[in-house]
């Protein structure tokens, strides 16, 4: 129910959300679709109990369970903070919580602690509730209409937390159980092979969850699909990390390139781009990089009648994304994907020394695979 980590570049994938507050600098957000879940729960509880008080208790229960899910995610996030890994946000959706960690822990022991901390929170909550459940439980506790008594309410909350522990411990990578499996396998198999094993097992379980979900619950089917895709994405991401490890921007950058001065015309820049087959042209001011203009922008400006205007006028006032030659190729690629850039300038000692197109990174990858 609570896939713990998401890839940094996917943080906006899920659309708008409302911020509830922050804990230890981590924004806690609630996804818009959560309101649909609350409406659905309202309908379900009001038709099941038929009373206002019963409905309110049912809603309180739903909110408390999701409160426990937030605490679960905080377990992951605050443990990650201890290892110097920040969390961008925790988002609550009908499918569960999602703590978007800045990066995945590389060390298997760190991954073990960070992952185990989530289910451990729910185990502690269940452990704290257990004496009260035992003290208040009677024969009617479990036979009664849900939430109709205090003891029933406590017992349901206890079971919800037990379920959160058990469900998250399914070895369905990238859910907690699958991450724990990978962490356990890493010392003997290495990170890449253990990720492959964990994600294959995760995909088998995802298919089983999906099939079970088709008969019992659409939520389960959703989670099955999500786990299946997330396992493949995580495997690809680790494969990419492994293949690019040890490579730097200087291994992939193009050292010969054309540039124009800011006072050159848009037509000049367009000609330069056409003749040298370069899709983006750096624009310089006194040998310093001012920005980078792509072919489509130049064509559009010319079509609008600005062919003889200075190309500097097309450069955005925002500082362009740049990389350094010593920077790891993986971090450069991640930044380019996040900011949706096909090509970035390489800067050293305040001077433009090359260009890094995504195509070149893929060529390096192809050479590594060969
Ligand atoms: Zn978790």
Helix-strand topology string: EEHHEEHHHHHEHEEHHEEH
Question: What best-fitting shape do the alpha-carbon axes yield?
Answer: elongated
Mean pLDDT: 86
Strand tally is 9
Describe the protein.
This protein has 370 residues and is an alpha/beta fold. The protein folds into 3 domains: 1-169, no CATH class; 170-245, no CATH class; 249-369, CBS-domain (Roll). 57% of the residues lie in helices and 15% in strands. It contains 11 helices and 9 strands. The protein has helices at 34-49, 52-82, 108-136, 139-143, 150-168, 176-216, 218-244, 266-276, 295-303, 329-338, 358-369, and strands spanning 17-23, 26-31, 87-93, 96-101, 260-261, 280-285, 288-294, 343-348, 351-357. It has a 4-stranded mixed beta sheet with strand order 1-2-3-4, covered by helices on one side. Helix 1 packs antiparallel against helix 2 (52-82). It starts with 16 loop residues before the first strand and ends with a helix.
Summarize the structure.
The protein has 370 residues and is an alpha/beta fold.
List keywords for this structure.
370 residues; alpha/beta; CBS-domain; 3 domains; four-stranded mixed sheet; three-stranded mixed sheet; 9 strands; elongated; disordered N terminus; binds zinc ion
Give the topology:
Layout: E1 17-23, E2 26-31, H1 34-49, H2 52-82, E3 87-93, E4 96-101, H3 108-136, H4 139-143, H5 150-168, H6 176-216, H7 218-244, E5 260-261, H8 266-276, E6 280-285, E7 288-294, H9 295-303, H10 329-338, E8 343-348, E9 351-357, H11 358-369
Helix pairs in contact: 1-2, 2-3, 2-5, 3-5, 3-6, 6-7, 8-9
The protein binds zinc ion (ZN).
């Amino acid at each position: 129910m609570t896939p713990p980590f998401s890839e940094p570049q996917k943080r906006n994938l899920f659309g708008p959300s409302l911020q509830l507050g922050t804990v230890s600098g981590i924004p806690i957000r609630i996804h818009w679709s959560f309101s649909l879940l609350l409406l659905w729960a309202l309908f379900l509880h009001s038709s099941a109990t038929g009373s206002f008080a019963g409905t309110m208790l049912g809603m309180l229960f739903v909110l408390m369970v999701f409160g426990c899910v937030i605490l679960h995610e905080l377990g992951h996030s605050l443990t990650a903070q201890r290892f110097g890994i920040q969390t961008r946000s925790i988002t609550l959706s009908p499918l569960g919580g999602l703590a978007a960690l800045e990066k995945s822990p590389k060390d298997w022991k760190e991954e073990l602690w960070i992952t185990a901390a989530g289910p451990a929170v729910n185990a502690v909550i269940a452990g704290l509730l257990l004496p009260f459940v035992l003290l208040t439980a009677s024969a009617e506790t479990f036979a009664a209409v849900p939430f109709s008594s205090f003891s029933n309410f406590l017992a349901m909350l206890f079971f919800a937390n037990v379920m959160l522990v058990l469900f998250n411990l399914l070895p369905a990578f990238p859910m907690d159980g699958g991450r724990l499996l990978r962490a356990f396998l890493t010392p003997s198999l290495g990170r890449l092979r253990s990720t492959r094993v964990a994600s294959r097992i995760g995909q088998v379980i995802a298919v089983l969850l999906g099939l079970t979900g088709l008969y019992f619950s659409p939520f389960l089917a959703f989670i099955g699909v999500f786990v299946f895709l997330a396992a493949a994405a995580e495997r690809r991401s680790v494969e990419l990390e492994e293949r690019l490890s040890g490579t730097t921007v200087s291994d992939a950058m193009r050292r010969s390139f054309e540039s124009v001065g800011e006072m050159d015309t848009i037509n000049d820049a367009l000609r330069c781009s056409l003749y040298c087959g370069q899709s983006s042209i750096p624009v310089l001011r006194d040998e310093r990089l001012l920005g980078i203009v792509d072919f489509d922008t130049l064509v559009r400006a010319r079509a609008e009648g600005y062919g003889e205007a200075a190309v500097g006028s097309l450069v955005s006032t925002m500082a362009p994304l740049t990389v350094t030659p010593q920077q790891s190729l993986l971090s450069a690629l991640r930044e380019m994907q996040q900011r949706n850039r096909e090509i970035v300038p390489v800067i050293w000692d305040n001077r433009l020394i090359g260009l890094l197109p995504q195509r070149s990174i893929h060529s390096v990858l192809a050479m590594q695979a060969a």
